[in-house]
Amino acid sequence: MLQQSLEISLDTLKHRKISSILTVLGIVIGISAIISLLSIGVGLQQSISEQLEGMGSDKIMVMPGSGDGFMAGMSAFTAESLTDKDVETVEDISGVKIAAGLLMKTLPIKYKDEVVTTYVTGGTPEAYNKMFLEMRIFEINEGRSVKEGESDVTAIGSRIVDDVFEDDVKIGDTLYVKDKKFKVIGNLKSIGNSQDDQNVYITLDDMRELVGGKDSLTLIYVQVSNPENIDNVAEKIEKKLEDKYGENTITTLTSEQMTEMMNSIFSILTFVVGGIASISLLVAGVGIANTMFISVMERTKEIGVMKAIGATNYNIMEIFLIESSLLGFIGGAIGSIIGFLLSQIINLFAVGMIPVTFQATVTPEMVLFCLGFSVIVGIISGLWPARKAAKMQPVEALRYE
Length: 401
Hints:
2 domains, 6-stranded mixed barrel, two-stranded antiparallel sheet
C-alpha cells in the first residue's frame, strides 16, 4: 500500500503543478538561506583554525587588559601598558625561548595620491628577526627586513603590494605614514589574514616618533621551549606581570585558547543565523498546511470513493502525509542545490571583502540535516489536514459537491 500511496501522491503533485511550485518555494528559500549562511560560518571557522594552527602550538600572545580573550585583544590596541622592560622580564621566565614586543596602531598610509588607513606595526630589528626568522610567524617574500640602526624604512604586507592601492607597491618605492616618508625595503608572504597581510612594518623608534609613547608596547609574542608546558608558562607570565601591574591587568592567549574562543563565537553565530533562516521554514510550513487543506477539500469525493472500496483511516492519512513530506523533500533538495551555488558565488565575491581568506564549505552533514529538517516540517504541516481527511465519513464525502 505504501507504494500505491506514493504513486497517488506523485500523481497529485503533477496535476497541481502551480500550487505545488508555490508551496515548495517557501521551503526552497529557507533551506537555501540556511545552507549558504552555515557554509560561510563553517568556512570561516576552518580558515581561522588553520591560521591559528599555523602559528604553532608553542606561541603565546601577551596583552594588557583583562576579561575574555576577545575583549582583552581589543583593549590591547587602545591602551599600551606593556613596556620594553616587560619583554626582558618575560624572556627571563623559565620555559620561555623567545619574546618579541610590538607597538601597533591604525594610521593613514599614502602612496602616490591615494590614502588608506591600516595597521602599522613598530618593532626593533631584533624583534623582527625573532618573528621572521626564529618564530616563523611571518616570512619575507622579497627584499629584507629592517636592520639595526636603520630608520625611515618599511617592510609591507602582501596586500599593500598589489591590492590596497591602484598601482602596485614595489621595493624601492616611497610610502608616507602620517606624512613621514618611508622607503619600501621588503614585502611579506601572505598568511591568508587580510588584516595582517595589509600591515606596514617600521622600526619601533619611528613608530614612537609618530604616535608618542616612550617605551609603550601593544603586545608581546612569546615562543616557549616545550609546547607541552605552554599553559604553565602562560600562567607564570601572567602572574609575573600582574605582580607588577596589579591583578587582572594582563591576559595571555595560547593558540589553543584562541581556537576555542573562535569556535565558541562561531557556534553562537551559527545558531543565531540558523534560527533566523529557520523562520522562513515555519512560514513555509504554514503554506504547506494551507495547500494540504485545499487538497483535502478538492478531493473529498475521491476520499469517499477510496473509503467505500476499503481504504482505512491509516491509508488516507498515509497518502496525505506522503504528499506533504514530498513537498518538504523537494523543497529541501532544490534549496540545498541553490544554497550550494550561493556559497560558490560568495567565494567569488568574498576575496578581499572578508578579513581572512576562506572557502564557504557545504558539508554532507549540513545537506542531510537540512533535507531531514524540511521533510519534518512537511510532515508536521500535513498532519492536521491528513487527520481531517482520514476522519471523513464515506457517505458524507461522496455527497460533497
